[in-house]
Amino acid sequence: MSRRRIAALALTIGLGTTATALTTTVAIAGEKKPDFSKLKEIEEPDPCKNDQGVTDDTIKVGVITIESGPAGAGFAPGAEQGIQARFDKANAEGELGDRTIEFTVADDTNDSARNLTAARQLNEEEKIFGIISLTGVAKGGAGYLNEEGIPVTGWHTGENVWGIYPNMFSWRPTQAPDNRTVFTTRNADLLKELGAKRIAVVGSNVESSAINADQAATAVEKTKGLKLVFKTTDVTVEQQDFTGIAAQIKEAKADGVYTSTGGLQANGLTQALDQAGIELKAIVFPGGYDDRVTGLPGYDGAYIGTEFVPLEVGSPGLTEYTEAMESHGFETLRFFALHGWFSADAFVEGIKAAGVSCPTRKAFINNLRLVKGYDAGGSFLPVDYAKVFGRPAACFYYVQVQNQEFVPIFDGEPFCATQMVEDGEARKLKPSEIKIG
Is it the case that residue 318 has pLDDT exceeding 80? Predict the structure, then answer.
């Protein structure tokens, strides 16, 4: 593998897994949160008339993901492999009655315009029933897919469109429609729990990374017992030398660091901090739960969060995932493979909710929104799809990199935020809010 390929791979794993540098905020004026309180289950039509993409023996699904370009190294082939493994399992076990799932993939190269083109192509030319979206630019085609009434499952990658359009189902909590100003204090709470008091925040000048860093800094300022001593969002995409930043962090006497950079940049920052002789209580990376980063020296000792139970902890659903992936000869500890599996599992759940005898797009969207307690076999906190819509996640699972392995912390239990920040004001989260993730 070339050095350029390695660099692209590490950057994508570190940033893509957290959705900080792959996305930008979408401002949609006048959008209001849908009211799901009066939804009633839609019954299967009788007699059955097949929707587009559905025949008497197949259901055709479109997948929009990133297969090429700099971000493709992290997404492909894992995302497609996870989807394939889950759909193959559904087909082999007859989960959808007489029908099996077929899927076709469109590459948006992590470009918004191409995302819209891919959505149109899959709907108008490939005649799919629904979409799985695993990309950093779902915003490109989100409005079109909503207007067409096409069900979409996937992972939010930090994009707020998943909390705006009711046809879109991230398998876990989404984002607030205005994710610049509504977020939890989870990262600050974590740093405090790990013993840090004086916090440095490092972000890049990429809009989404800067937003994430701003949120972390505000969360620190709103958390009793913590002090923000350094912050920058001036890191460029190309920057690899962090000597100057490390010197400023040392001068500020920080004992905890949160960075919204990832991959080789996070690796370089950590090594610079070590070379400067800075002893930290904790350094938190936005993501990177993928075995391809454990060999990077700067990741050793870092804390990384996931929205799902770590494989090291396990669940019945994750056992099914591991067995299915291994039966195909696929790698298991790949971040987007897991997201592919969960996204496909949520799609299967949507078809079951719509009714396997005659699934329709309208029933899929309506009935899946009514599902409560969905957790993919205990693989994450149970989801109430009506309540999580438009909400940032309150709870994550955390691992620490130790000797090139991921070690779960907090006894493998989820760690939850204590506060929600809304328009600059912090309020304590209610137990009922934490319970839904």
Answer: yes
Residue 7 has pLDDT above 90, yes or no: no
- Burial tier of 141 (Cβ tally within 10 Å: 0-12, 13-18, 19+): buried
Strand stretches in 197-315, DSSP E:
198-204, 227-235, 256-259, 282-285, 303-306
CA dist., res. 321 & res. 244, Å (int): 44
Residue type, 70: P
Distance, in Å, from the CA atom of 173 to the CA atom of 187, rounded to the nearest integer, reads: 16
> In this predicted model, what pLDDT tens digit does every residue of 78-101 receive, in sequence order?
999 999 999 999 999 999 999 999
Which residue, among 309, 293, 347, 333, has the nearest Cα to 84 in the 3D structure? 347
The verdict on pTM exceeding 0.85 is yes
User: What is d(CA 10, CA 266) in angstroms, rounded to the nearest whole number?
Assistant: 10
Q: What is the DSSP letter of 99?
A: -
Half-sphere exposure for 384 (CA within 13 Å, toward CB): 11
**Helix (H, G, I), strand (E, B), or coil: what is residue 280?**
coil
Q: At what angle do helices 263-275 and 243-251 cross, to 10 degrees?
A: 50
Cis bond leading into 414, ω under 30°?
Answer: no
